[in-house]
Amino acid sequence: MTFRPLVLLVLWSLQASASADPSERFIDDAAIKADFETHLGTLFQAGGLPAASSLAEQLRKATAAPIPVPANAGPETGPSLDPVARARNATLVLGHLYLCGKCDNYHGNVAGGVIISPDGLVLTNYHVMDAKEAIVFGAMTAEGQIFGIERVLAASKRDDVALVKLLDAKDLPCVPLSPRISAGDELFVLSHPDGHFYTLTRGYLARKYLIPREQVQRLQITADFAKGSSGSGIFNVRGELIGLATSTNSIYYSEKNGVKDNLQMVVKSGVPVESIRQLFSGAPLP
């Protein structure tokens, strides 16, 4: 007998659940990864989750969504909440399950995502959703709720951004989009570099720039992130979303016989809020 799953609530570990304040938790990275794999696998086996192939088709065809930018609603967007806590509550572990071909276990490939509405509208990178080996996609909140991804609402491969909807989501913590961001503004990133979940880094907006030839808009920031951080949020000091972490570029001083040497700088780039806002056409869904 199959059923349409709603949500599974899991606990990372006794250490993680012992403190009411997320900033005081000792995060168990291995437990978070295992919970994502195990509980998303359970939901998938139970039936009712869209297959990754269906989402991939939606991703390829998606353009702008016929919906307005979500309003700043709910207590999690209020000014009384600490900006870092506000951002953390809205930050997801988002990714997919795949089979390695050597065993029967599901394996997770995870990145980041950000909730922007209580009913489960989520932003992430296009390339996070563009995974050929994926069987099913899902997301896990900072409190351990597991959701399947219901559908892709809007996407831009050029800008590397996708808007997706979580299945059966309601009353979720979320963050608003910032109206603007300027060079020199302070910011922070909450991301999952190489499985180091909910890592906080701080910095500044170094500049806004255009990728040569394609003329794609990007943010260059000084806050660190690394592989595994894709789709995670870049936030201003009020906890509003100003962009998504998307790529890094290492600058070396010299290169000899194809071998680069003397690393000098790593440029961290993000999708700006201006590109994100272009995903919304403004009219309500029918």
Give descriptors for this structure:
single chain, 286 residues, alpha+beta, Thrombin, subunit H, 2 domains, 6-stranded antiparallel beta barrel, disordered N terminus
How much is the average pLDDT?
A: 89
CATH H-level name of the largest domain... which superfamily?
Trypsin-like serine proteases
Gyration radius over CA = 19 Å
Percent of sequence in beta strands: 35-45%
State the domain count. Answer: 2
Taking the alpha carbons of the first and last residues, their distance comes to 33 Å
Major sheet attributes: 6 strands, antiparallel, barrel
| Helical coverage, percent range | 10-25%
Question: How would you spell out the order of helices and strands?
Answer: EHHHHEEEHEEEEEEEEEH
Low confidence ranges: 1-20, 73-79
Q: Return the structural class.
A: alpha+beta
Shape estimate: globular
Q: What fold name goes in the CATH topology slot of the largest domain?
A: Thrombin, subunit H
User: What's the helix count?
Assistant: 6
| Total strands | 13
CATH class of the largest domain: Mainly Beta
Question: Can you give a write-up of this model?
Answer:
The protein is α+β, with helices and mostly antiparallel strands. It has helices at residues 14-18, 29-46, 52-61, 83-89, 126-129, 273-277; strands at 8-9, 91-99, 106-115, 121-124, 136-140, 145-156, 161-166, 186-191, 199-210, 217-221, 233-236, 241-256, 259-272. A 6-stranded antiparallel beta barrel has the order 2-3-4-7-6-5. A hairpin with a 6-residue loop joins strand 9 and strand 10 (217-221).
